[in-house]
């Protein structure tokens, strides 16, 4: 069964530091997403990416966030200057067709 | 923002009993997806329903999409301890694009 792979599984960073969360989507998928889940809260949409550009982003996805697909396989989420409230599980997902997504196992980001 | 309300928030039952989880919205969705999420893991897709009135079965799990495509239900027959988990519904307004998630229903099945 093809998987979406996320690294690292856990990242601890100091407030104000930059972090890059990495994802390898399933190879023949076309749409890519980042979601986050703050502890005890709903899974929230951050951004969708198609054809090498952002197709939609949420209000959460402000100027401190950016996404890239630098080499055709990796899909990264960068948070430029982390804040305490950025602490959450970050999930990458990819989609081939309308039948549904495949999510990765997530990166737990802890900002101290 | 289209809201998806799941009920109940928590359900504890004995092995062998049946249970139903509901997902309701005032908005119309093009599709409704059900996921199961284990602690510290990403959601795992169980099923996608796209047609109003559609019923899909996955072993002991039955999923239904409301006629108006605003609500859905998940029914588990003869629940087993392995069914324990967080069940999430998520709606999409386009075939491709973001999902709006419900808050989830935590199901606990005791032997």
Task: Give your account of this protein's structure.
Chain A contains no helices and 11 strands. By secondary structure, chain A is an all-beta fold. In chain A, the strands form 2 sheets. In chain A, strands 2, 4, 5, 6, 9, 10 and 11 form a 7-stranded mixed sheet that branches. In chain A, strands 1-3-8-7 form a 4-stranded antiparallel sheet, with no helix packed on it. Chain A is globular, with a radius of gyration of 13 Å. The mean pLDDT of chain A is 94. Chain B is an all-beta fold. In chain B, strands 2, 4, 5, 9, 10 and 11 form a 6-stranded mixed sheet that branches. Chain B has a 5-stranded antiparallel sheet with strand order 1-3-8-7-6, with no helix packed on it. Chain B is globular. The model of chain B has no long low-confidence stretch (mean pLDDT 94). Chain A binds chain B through residues 4, 30-31, 33, 35, 41-45, 48, 50, 55-56, 58, 89, 91, 93, 95, 97-106, 108, and chain B through 31, 33, 35, 40-45, 47-48, 50, 88, 90, 95-104.
């Amino acid at each position: 069964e093809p998987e979406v792979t996320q690294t690292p599984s856990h990242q601890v960073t100091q407030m104000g530091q930059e972090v890059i969360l990495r994802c390898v989507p399933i190879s023949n998928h076309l749409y890519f997403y980042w979601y986050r889940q703050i502890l005890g809260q709903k899974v929230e949409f951050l951004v969708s990416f198609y054809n090498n550009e952002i197709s939609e982003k949420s209000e959460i996805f402000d100027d401190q966030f950016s996404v890239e697909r630098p080499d055709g396989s990796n899909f990264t989420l960068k948070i430029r200057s982390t804040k305490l409230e950025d602490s959450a599980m970050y999930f990458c997902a990819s989609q081939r067709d309308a039948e549904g997504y495949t999510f990765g196992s997530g990166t737990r980001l802890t900002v101290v | 923002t289209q809201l998806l309300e799941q009920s109940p928030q928590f359900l504890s039952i004995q092995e062998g009993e049946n249970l139903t989880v509901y997902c309701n919205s005032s908005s119309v969705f093009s599709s409704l997806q059900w996921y199961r999420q284990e602690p510290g893991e990403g959601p795992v897709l169980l099923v996608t329903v796209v047609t109003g009135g559609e019923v899909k079965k996955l072993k002991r799990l039955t999923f239904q999409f409301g006629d108006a495509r605003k609500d859905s239900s998940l029914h588990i027959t003869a629940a087993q301890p392995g069914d324990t988990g967080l069940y999430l519904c998520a709606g999409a307004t386009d075939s491709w694009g973001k999902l709006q998630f419900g808050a989830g229903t935590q199901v606990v099945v005791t032997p």
